[in-house]
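Encode chain A's predicted structure.
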Amino acid sequence: MNVFARLGVVALAAVSLAACGNRDEVGSVGVDWTGNDISIEAVADPDVEGVVCHLAFFNRSFIDRVSQGNWFEDPSYSALDCSAVGPVTVGDISTRPGGEEIFKQARSLIWKSLRVTRIYDQANNALIYLAHAREVQQGSGKMSLSVVPLNGLNVHWTNGAPRTSGESQSVMVQ
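Encoded structure for chain A:
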């Protein structure tokens, strides 16, 4: 590959990486002299008003990408903590054991993404948030977990709270 083609690829990669910013970033901590950072983003649950998750992940710098030779991939590691920040209104959420994805961010050009999945734990009346990497080729055990217990909170279910499997339906007679 000639010098001009290499410079073109480098320029395209730099512009692409610069466009990956997120306006929900609440903080960034530099971790070394090459410009690598740990970014922290606020992720609001789109179907549960009053719950916010803070997701921390590693952002590789341009210098690190050049020196490592892996231009288009960031590490899968993440940390997650979620909490109720006010009255909680639960909308139309999935109660399936697999839950539903509430956040996704690419961690490579094509193959890898960082995701946050919400799972409702009906037996304990809690929302579980799981940050994990999803890769097409290889699965990853890199994950982080946070739980928001709903007992004792001011919680409103827009479609009515799900019934536990042991609940029977009662009929009021007047």
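Residues 23-157 form one domain.
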